[in-house]
Write a structure and sequence with these properties.
It contains 27 helices and 24 strands. It is α+β, with helices and mostly antiparallel strands.
């Protein structure tokens, strides 16, 4: 073993360029694999920290409307969990409901902060889910009204590092909530994140009356999780839910709608759930893409080692022949070469770990993956051993063929003259073909993803998204002053329009069943999306009215009695003349009104989904009948159209105005185009990552090609000299050396294009609106890879091809 190590180190020192290319290629491959492996591990281990994970399920449900359309919901009725637990006590051990808190604000002694992830929850949350408790008693937490459990980071914001149990935090209504428990910040790998949990008990309990409970079953507004008993069979649940629905959901039949539900295993929600109205989720397609890229880069690095090792065989034949004559067996030689490969790989592993440790803390890398990644080999010794074993395995895999090939030389043939091994040529060509097929495929996928995202960014959405600023208005007192606020804002020359809305473009818009007049004049049940807006919303957002008119400030009859519908709504109802058709909301036909206008179809959701029937209802912002306790929790979005050249100054003046009108809330604002871009964050992230790794693929492949060209040029030095004497130009010689590789790249481009087309076709299927696959991008990827390969070989071959032929003919 000691002798093998000496020989390997001697070879390492003698062939520095060969060693550098091998170590650099393997290091980049291992670094990419480690980085992507950490990301994949995080994605595949979501919610596995919960002790009861195998028995925890979320209820998902589907509402199917009379016209055949259906919508899947991650949220359910607050009555569903308690009623199921009472109906099936031998099957369900416990349940937990999470409902988004109406208030996003917590206050303490002048400190005010927004917390987007704040929920109202049942006290059983600490029984069903696993939390690390820092202070407080999990068995009594959230059992009393006006109590709150907070995370470590919330506790630090208001109380520093002190135990805050017994202290109070206030919501927007001024209600003091006592802190009863502090839990450690939830891990990144959990699909439902929360910073604070407010006791469900106290004002949000469902009534005991069965009729009222059944009426609530059609109103989804929160997540419901079940903890099944150990003896329970989850496969029985769909049948049980059907029985439950037949018994309790007769009210849906009155509006010609149906309901069915199913269980989603906790650990599978992040990657497998496809329902709407959910938290952000992962994407299994992207996981496959990342795993494939990791394997591809490592494969290219290993191919480099095989190519370089077999190409350098001519320089090592005499040593092999001499060792065989001196009695070395083939297994001994194989062991020597495998040891050398393992040494290269271990050096590459160390370098790869250093690269990962340097890059992962960088903010740009965190933003690229959407979450922080940490290697921490010292804190996780098992991971360190795994990385070490992985490095050795890579070396053994990469070195297996070269070891077998180099140990196969006949000793006399190797010692007599200069041995020219040719057995590895076909393999090297095959491996070069594979390398560039992978690289070209990854480049083509990156270009095609960029094309789709540019299509999404440039596609006409049916409304104007640029220079529209969204300001969050909290509390009925402020919202009722919207007209005054609009008047004040419009005095600013930089403000070109002001309007109010209950929702943000791109967010899920609720689907409900209403009473709608059909073409024959009969009232039928019809499911559609509904959004409520204030005056001037349609012109401020640049939505086109194609028939009828917009809401009018001067017509009081428009308030609460008029609807504007989109073209899809008109087509779905089969209306020839929609103006004047009657619409009312819900099974009882509340808020009756008539259609006054038709808006041209606009994409109010992501381009992944097709446009659905939409009704726009005018919100009069009248909260006079609302209970006083609910007034502080009302939220609306104020949309302000701002002149682009006056953006900075105008925003400053708007902030000053809101500071005067609403000093109790720090101003929150964003831009419509920014919110829409968030819908495609995962795609943009994937495109950037694959683009980076495509560049790494090409770079690693070219490292190997550089070494291969060096070896090839060295072996053909005399041939080059003869050709130079016979009049060949430098360019002709470079093309001669590169011709075979370029042919292989061309063949690889064909295979890569087919594979990339299939992968991108599958990816684009997730978009309702998509661009056509442009063949030019496949050609561009192939030409780019070919140009880089040619340049790499030219740089290596230039000196010999351009040199004095006399010196080449003297070469030994």
């Amino acid at each position: 073993m000691k002798t093998y190590l000496k020989v390997a180190l001697r070879n390492l020192g003698r062939e520095k360029m060969y060693a550098l290319l091998n170590v650099a290629g393997l290091a980049l491959g291992i670094a990419c694999c480690l980085t992507l492996g950490l990301y994949l591990f995080g994605e595949l281990t979501y919610d596995l920290h919960h002790v009861n994970r195998d028995r925890i399920y979320r209820i998902a449900n589907r509402f199917t409307f009379g016209d055949g359309r259906s919508t899947d919901f991650a949220i359910t009725s607050p009555a569903l969990g308690p009623m199921l637990a009472e109906e099936y006590p031998d099957y369900i051990a416990s349940f937990v409901r999470f409902r988004k808190s109406q208030s996003a604000v917590l206050r303490h002694e002048g400190e005010v902060a927004y917390w987007d992830d704040m929920y109202v929850a049942d006290a059983s949350v600490f029984e069903v889910f696993t939390h690390k408790i820092l202070w407080g008693d999990r068995s009594t937490a959230l059992t009393e009204p006006n109590t709150i459990a907070i995370s470590r980071r919330v506790a630090r914001r208001y109380f520093g590092d002190q135990n805050p149990v017994g202290e109070s935090l206030a919501n927007d209504a001024g209600i003091q909530m006592q802190v009863v428990l502090v839990f450690d910040d939830l891990p990144e790998s959990t699909h439902l994140r929360y910073d604070a949990l407010i006791a469900y008990k106290g004002g949000l309990e469902i009534p005991a009356d069965i009729t009222t409970r059944r009426a609530l079953l059609g109103d989804p507004n929160g997540f419901t999780y079940l903890l099944l008993k150990k003896s329970a069979d989850a496969a029985r649940f769909p049948g049980m839910l059907k029985t439950f629905a037949d018994k309790n959901m007769g009210i849906l039949a009155s509006v010609n709608a149906k309901w069915n539900g199913w269980l989603e295993p906790l650990a599978g929600i992040h990657l497998n759930s496809t329902v709407g109205y959910d938290r952000p989720r992962g994407n299994r397609f992207y996981l496959y893409a990342f795993a494939s890229v990791a394997v591809f880069i490592l494969a290219i690095a290993c191919i480099n080692y095989v190519n370089l090792a077999t190409a350098r065989a001519a320089q090592r034949t005499r040593a092999v022949g001499l060792r065989k004559i001196l009695g070395a067996g083939r297994m001994s030689l194989i062991a020597q070469h495998l040891g050398e490969a393992a040494l290269f790989s271990l050096l590459a592993t160390v370098l790869g770990v250093i690269i990962v440790e340097v890059l992962l803390p960088l903010p740009g890398v965190t933003a690229l993956f959407g979450k922080p990644l940490t290697l921490d080999l010292f804190g996780r010794p098992l991971l360190g051993l795994g990385v070490l074993g992985f490095g050795i395995l890579v070396g053994l895999v990469a070195g297996a063929y070269p070891a077998a090939y180099l140990s196969s030389f006949a000793p006399l043939a190797a010692l007599v003259g200069r041995y020219q091994p040719g057995g590895g040529l076909r393999l090297r060509e095959t491996l070069v073909f594979v390398q560039f097929a992978i690289s070209i495929g990854v480049i083509a996928c990156t270009l095609l993803m960029g094309q789709q995202l540019r299509f999404v960014a440039s596609k006409g959405l049916g409304f104007e998204k640029e220079n529209r600023v969204l300001f969050t208005m909290r509390g009925a007192d402020l919202i009722e002053r919207e007209e005054l606020i609009a008047t004040e804002l419009e005095k600013n020359p930089g403000v070109q329009g002001v309007a109010m809305s209950a929702s943000i473009m791109g967010q899920d818009v609720g689907i409900l069943t209403g009473k709608v007049e059909n073409e024959e004049g009969r009232i039928v049940d019809f499911g559609f999306s509904l959004t409520t807006v204030g005056d001037d919303y349609i012109p401020v957002m640049g939505i086109e009215i194609v028939k009828g008119r917009d809401f009018s400030r001067r017509l009081l009859t428009d308030v609460g009695a008029s609807y504007v519908v989109n073209e899809t709504f008109v087509r779905a109802m089969g209306w020839k003349d929609p103006i004047g058709k009657r619409i009312a909301l819900g099974a009882a036909g509340i808020v009756p009104g008539r259609v006054i206008g038709v808006a041209k179809d606009f994409n109010y959701k992501s381009l992944r989904t097709a446009i659905e029937p939409l009704a726009i209802f005018r919100d009069d912002a009248d909260f006079s009948q609302l209970p006083a306790v609910q007034r502080p929790f009302q939220v609306r979005q104020l949309v302000v159209k701002v002149a682009p050249q006056e953006m900075g100054a105008t925003l400053g003046q708007i902030q000053k105005l809101f500071a005067e009108l609403d000093p109790g809330h720090p101003l929150q604002y964003t831009f419509v185009d920014v919110e829409l871009d968030k819908l495609y964050t995962s795609e943009q992230r994937l495109m950037k990552l694959i683009g980076i790794f495509a560049a790494i693929c090409i770079f690693v492949a070219c490292l190997g090609l550089f070494g291969l060209a060096a070896s090839n040029t060295e072996q053909r030095t005399k041939e080059i000299g003869i050709r130079k004497v016979l009049g060949a130009s430098t360019l002709e010689i470079i093309l001669l050396l590169a011709r075979r590789v370029l042919v292989l790249i061309g063949a690889g481009a064909v295979v890569a294009s087919i594979a990339a087309w299939i992968a991108m076709h599958q990816w684009l299927a997730g978009f309702a609106y998509r661009s056509a696959l442009n063949p030019a991008y496949f050609v561009l990827a192939a030409l780019g890879a070919g140009a880089v390969a040619l340049l790499t070989m030219a740089l290596q071959s230039w000196r010999t091809a351009h040199g004095d032929p006399v010196e080449a003919l003297r070469y030994e």
